[in-house]
Amino acid sequence: MVDMMQNYEMAKRILAKYKQEHLLNFYDELNNDEKEQLISQICQINFEQIFSLYEASKKDELIPHRSIAPLPYTIKKDLTTEEFMYYCSIGENAIVNGKYAVVTLAGGQGTRLGYKGPKGTFELDTEPKKSLFEILCEHLKEANEKYNITIPWYIMTSIYNDEQTKKFFEEKNFFDYPKDSIYFFEQSELPLINLSGNLILEEPYKIKEASNGNGDVFLSMKRHGILKDMKQKQIEWIFFSGVDNVILDIVDPLLLGLTIANNKVIASKTLFKKNIEDKDWIFARRDGKPAIINSCHLTPEMKIAIDENGHYLYREINLLAHLFNISALEKIVKVFLPYHRAFKKNTFVNEEGMKQVPESPNTFKFETFIFDAFSLFDEIELLRVEENEEFAPIKDFNGAHNPEIAKELYEKKYCLK
After folding, report:
1. Which helix (H) or strand (E) holds 91?
2. Read out DSSP for 13-46?
3. Which of 2, 141, 234, 254 has the largest CB neighbor count within 10 A?
4. What is the pLDDT of residues 328-353, one digit of tens each?
């Protein structure tokens, strides 16, 4: 009881310092367990960090176009048969020798799909129906059979879906994948801040937090011993992708071989940006380093610029398909990636202690992105692939990337062979 009172007084001092006393508005109505949960959370939050991020994020990022330069890339369909076979042979050699692993970013929920539960458990309406996790697992099992190996599969979850995700895999008997070759680890979270600069409550006894972006994968891997495990297994190459792209080649010897042959330690697959006015971010050099930047920072001339071969200089966009050498990961985990601010709609506990669903975005979320790690390196290998061959993400029901289109592309690629 003494410790509880001491922690309570500490929490009050912290909240007073940052003018967040409202977080204790319902404290007297809580039971002892709920009180302890809230006080513990307050004492663990880095308020200095979150408010520093909030103030820093108010400034609009300006990138002078003079600091932007093009990045070289390879177009898959332009490779000769000899080139294709050569690079694939290099990649296959690394895969066969157990040097390859896959990381799936699966911390999200299926909210935008109107689905309750981890997004990876959402089922594509195939015959029979298959969850996104099962589809990914099938890709891995096909590679395992082809190369006579077992590729380690690392899955990043969040505090909101970790337990459900693990339970789902157990119920599905891990889709007959070797259980000891699947590893789960959680990403971190940060509190949300509303338009008034206040943290919000998810419950009267719980401050609302959200996952801090896919860029947290690196530090989360270190924190949970994943990086150490990879080194013990002598894994050299790790492929990162999201959970929702059902036709992406996650075991691609071409990308791997091309990267190895050109002595690069990081690589990404890209898509061609068809409409120069689209808001998709593009690959480019920023201050001499590889980066992904908002195309609003390009001049009209840069948006349509071509090289001597007629190839566009600034039309390669990100599809969340990244390859890193283990040495690159060891370098990345020694730094902190920058945070970006996103404006989101989040339910909160109002002044009356009732759950309130906002009609429009009401909170700022802070997140890191994988691609900000590119700036730690001098070069990156880029491989442009075809959209209808490797890009069928499921984002929502009404947009361009919906389950029906994903199903059509998936069946065309895998079921109609």
Report:
1. helix 81-96
2. HHHHHTT-GGGGTTGGGS-HHHHHHHHHHHHHS-
3. 254
4. 999 999 999 999 888 888 999 999 99
Residues 6+ apart with CB under 8 A from 238: 100, 101, 102, 103, 230, 323, 324, 325, 326, 329
Helix (H) or strand (E) holding 260: helix 253-261
- Cα–Cα nearest to 413, from 141, 81, 175, 126: 126
Q: Which residues of the chain have pLDDT under 70?
A: 1-2, 60-61, 416-417
Q: DSSP per residue over 116-146, as a string?
A: -SBGGGPEE--SS-EEHHHHHHHHHHHHHHH
* SS3 of residue 12 by DSSP: helix
Contacts of 3 (CB under 8 A, 6+ apart): none
How confident is the model at residue 57, as a pLDDT?
Answer: 74
- What's residue 60's pLDDT? 66
CA angle 145, 146, 149 (to 5 degrees): 60
Report DSSP letters for 201-257, one per residue.
EEETTEE-EEE--GGGHHHHHHHTTHHHHHHHTT--EEEEEES-BTT--SS-HHHHH
Provide the residue count of the chain.
Answer: 417
CA torsion 411-412-414-417 (nearest 10°) is 130
Domain extents for the chain?
Answer: 1-44, 62-415
Q: Of 350, 353, 371, nearest to 362 (Cα)?
A: 350
Q: How far is CA 50 from the centre of its chain?
A: 20
Q: Are 189 and 209 in contact (CB under 8 A)?
A: yes
**Rounded to whole angstroms, what are the CA distances from 351 to 18, 150, 355?**
19, 54, 10
Q: Which residues pair with 207 in a beta bridge?
A: 201
Give the contacts of 399 (CB within 8 A, at least 6 positions apart): none
CB 348 within 8 A of CB 194: yes
CATH number attached to the domain at 62-415: 3.90.550.10
pTM equals: 0.93
Question: Residue 262: which of 383, 350, 148 has the closest Cα?
Answer: 383
Q: How many CB atoms lie within 10 A of CB 248?
A: 23
What is the signed CA dihedral for 108, 156, 244, 138, rounded to 10 degrees? -140
